[in-house]
Specification:
Length: 265
Amino acid sequence: MKSEGSRYALITGASAGIGEAFARLLAAEGRPLILVARTESELNRVAGVLATQHDVPITVVAIDLGRPDAVGFLARELERRNLQPDVIINSAGFGLFGAAHVLSAEEQVNMVDVNVRALTDITLRFLPGMVARRRGGVLNVASIAGFAPGPYMAVYHATKAFALSFSEALSAELAGSGVTVSAFCPGPVLTGFHARAGLTMGQRNHILKSLVAADIVENAWRGFERGQRVITTDPVAAGAAWFARVMPRRLVLAATRRILLKGQK
């Protein structure tokens, strides 16, 4: 699929990190944007910067996707403004580090609401229109974490496994329809995600590599345009995905646990 300036892209989690990087990339390509995130001031900051650099329409919708009625509100707001996205990038999401029985149950359920329910709801609400028009697509930001269970990030890894499986299944269902569905599975990237997750500085230094969001989104977008079903960021991430899929589960669990715990103190 080719980017065309008349077709809107809806990006969730657009106020920072990977979502903001996608917004910058697509605005530079001349694509009108619908930017969605929880914090209106940060959304306006991103929209203001892009408006000074690129002559593209930018619509901002501030909504907490963890709310049960969030996607319904978003759909009604777009209908009111007569906006119909042709591309969706589901980038909103967060993680938490710690033993599941110790972490807040409410926060972990909210993670499922944002990472799974909102992603699914947005995809299913707008996908029928794309299929009817025989164009467009959905790029779901999963994670390399989706390939393996994650001790001490159990719920996060499970949500990303859902995003990966859901995207791959939709991709197969929609083969030949003109609509693309891809799962983007980045490895560790320097964003605010890890601080939000509660990882210590030692863990962040151990896990994080030199990649920043701007380094990876262009490759992800090109893979999406080519109709690639699963997109990883680099050979290391691709190797980790292969390891997780072919090795015995007990080895995968042990390796993931070791990686997440190293540098904890």
